[in-house]
Every structure is written in structure tokens, then in C-alpha cells.
Amino acid sequence: YYDDDDATENTETEYSFYTILGVIGAILLISNSVVDLIRCVWYAKNLNISLCDKDIRGDTAAAITFGLAAVIDLSVSLPSNTSADGTSLMNGLEPLFTTHLYLISALSTVSQPNCRCSSKPVILSLMGDLMFLIGSLIDVVITYFGDPAITTSKKSVITNVWLLSSLLWLTDATLYIMADFLILRRSRLEKE
């Protein structure tokens, strides 16, 4: 997030590879939260319960907070959200907001692992939830240590820890994709 080497005065809108990846990634994260919220609504409707019912409120809260963080990520990724001197309109506070929202989402996810309306394989979901929680915790801690106004930590250490966090998030996503694949496979086998 913080890189003094890239602090140049660029008044042109630049669509770099990093910017494009940031926008696409944020759109995928928003899509993920929308799908999760739709799943929560569907379960609530089929079980005749409220979205605030104890059996589904953790998933609902996780989907909403994850979506809010993803929307902030998207707004930050768009070049139009920088002022003429290249600085962020939120004065660089976006990482603090998003990392904390992702952490709240992760805490909501792990708060109710035994939801009666969950259709995901338990082991894959639990492992994914733990990876999400650990990755989110690392992101929050590193956001503070990566801010040059707060600490003078070595850039290489911060970069390596960001890489670890990214690997945890990637593992989390892979586990959820595997769980979703197993659900689809199970539903197709049940139809036969």
C-alpha cells in the first residue's frame, strides 16, 4: 500500500497493469459478496427465517462487510479517485478501512461455523475460514507497520509478510472453489 518510490506527480490518468488488476480484483470481490448475500437470502427464504436469525446472521454480516470493503477497494483502484497531484482523495486511509472491514467479515464468518443452512463441505469451509481470518489479521497488522508515519519497518520484511497474506487469501479462495465444485458435483449426482 505504501511505496515512497512511486510518489511521483502524474496528472494524467494512467491505466497501468496494476490498476487494471486492481479494478478486476475488486469487481470479483464485489461479485463474491453479492453471490454470498443472494445465498443467504435464498436460505433464509427456504428455511422461513430472517437474515438476522442466529443460524444465518454470521454469513449475512460477513457478506455485507466483505462487500463494503470490496466497494472501497474498487473506488481506490479507479484512477479517477485521485487528486491532480496523484494523492488519494481519502488521504491514504483506504487500507485501514478495508483491512478492518475484511477482518470484521472474517470474524463474522468464523463466529458460526455450524450453520444449519450451510451446504459447503465442513472441513474445506473451516480451513478456508481460518485462512481468511489469519490473512485478514496479517493485513491489519501490516497496514500499521507498513505506514511510514507510524513505523520504520524494513520494506523487505513488510513485502514478505504481504506475500504470506496473499498466499493465505489465495489458499482460502482455492478451498472455497473446491468446496463449491464438490457441492455442484453432489447436486448433479443427486439429480441422477
Task: Write a structural description.
The chain is elongated. With about 190 residues, the protein is mainly α. α2 packs antiparallel against α3. Helix content is about 70%, strand content about 0%.
Series of secondary-structure elements, N-terminal to C-terminal: HHHHH
Proportion of strand residues: under 5%
Helix and strand content put the structural class at mainly alpha
Q: Which quaternary structure do these chains form?
A: single chain
Identify the overall geometry. Answer: elongated
Instruction: Report Rg.
Output: 19 Å
**Which range best describes the helical content: under 10%, 10-25%, 25-40%, 40-55%, 55-70% or over 70%?**
55-70%
| Number of alpha- plus pi-helical segments | 5
- On the 0 to 100 scale, the average pLDDT is 76
Low-pLDDT stretches are 7-11
Distance between the termini: 50 Å
* Major sheet: none
Secondary structure: number of strands: 0
Which SSEs are present, and which pair or pack?
Layout: H1 17-47, H2 57-77, H3 94-111, H4 122-145, H5 155-191
Brief rundown of the structure:
With 192 residues, the protein is mainly alpha-helical. The protein contains 5 helices and no strands.
